[in-house]
Design brief:
47% of the residues lie in helices and 20% in strands. It contains 5 helices and 6 strands; from the N terminus they run H-E-H-E-E-H-E-H-E-E-H. The protein has one domain: CBS-domain (Roll).
Length: 144
């Protein structure tokens, strides 16, 4: 199973912010959309970072309420790990575990086409495992 299959199910909408947006504005987007991270794009729609709830919390812990006026560009993760849409889910999960990240922008031909979270991948992995178990039960009951 590939990342493309997850995007086919969940959709390909990518919620983004700009590097000059404030953390307060970005936090409102996260809350409104009920998501844990957004992609930061430059004016040319290229990925320049990922901002997560954790990034915002770290800045609030360091700077208090003033952090909400900080720019996204000052708090986001700039070393963005991206994956091709053809990547297998198992490989993406391993990458996320190894790099200790929870969100992956998805590319096709260098274009951003989606954004997946570890929750998206785990949901698919559980569904796949349940389907395999059900198939095995059906096979065994047909045999006996």
């Amino acid at each position: 199973m590939t990342i493309d299959q997850i995007l086919n199910d969940k959709g390909r909408e990518v919620i983004s912010v700009g590097a000059d947006d404030t953390l307060g504005a970005a936090a409102k987007v996260l809350d409104l959309r009920r998501i844990g991270a957004v992609v930061a794009l430059d004016s040319g729609e290229s990925i320049i970072g990922v901002l997560s709830e954790r990034d915002i919390v770290r800045q609030v812990a360091r700077h208090g309420q003033a952090a909400l006026e900080m720019k996204v560009g000052d708090a986001m993760t700039r070393d963005v790990v991206t994956v091709p849409s053809t990547m297998r889910i198992d490989h993406a999960m391993q990458l996320m575990t190894d790099r200790r990240i929870r969100h992956l922008p998805v590319l096709r031909n260098e274009n951003l086409i989606g954004f997946v979270s570890i929750g998206d991948l785990v949901k698919w992995k559980i569904a796949e495992t349940e389907a395999e178990a059900e198939a095995m039960k059906s096979y065994l009951s047909a045999q006996y």
